[in-house]
Amino acid sequence: MDKLGLVLAILGAVMAAFGGGVGSAKGVGIVGEAAAGLVAEDPSKFTKVLILQILPGTQGLYGFITAIVVMIRTGIFTGEVAALTTADGLAYLAACLPMAIVGYFSAIGQARVAASGVSVIAKKPEEQSKAMVLAAMVETYAVLALLVSVLLIFSL
Hints:
It contains five helices and no strands. It is mostly helical.
């Protein structure tokens, strides 16, 4: 068995989890900062802004799912590791890149929109749903990246 192939596949899984996870951590922090300011002034708006803060966290979940799919497909969980060539490992690595890269940037972009949504809720709490829709639009690209990565992984 070519160990480099397995190492590259694992590197792809790590990158997917890392990109989505770091982007989500930064994103949730960005929205949390904005939300904390509003909640300090009006604690009754906590639940409204909490929903916006949760949204950028989904990219971390998508990166985690991508990594788990790689580990399942390569047999890491069962102990019967697939014999991967270097080319196979590179293919897994490449398949994980959409989720790694788009996951990172979409979480931060979504956080910026969600943080702006906190301002909307501060002035017009009844417009919470509009703020959520605006932030959720960025999610579309994270979902597309997840689909591309997972479909590529299953095609290997």
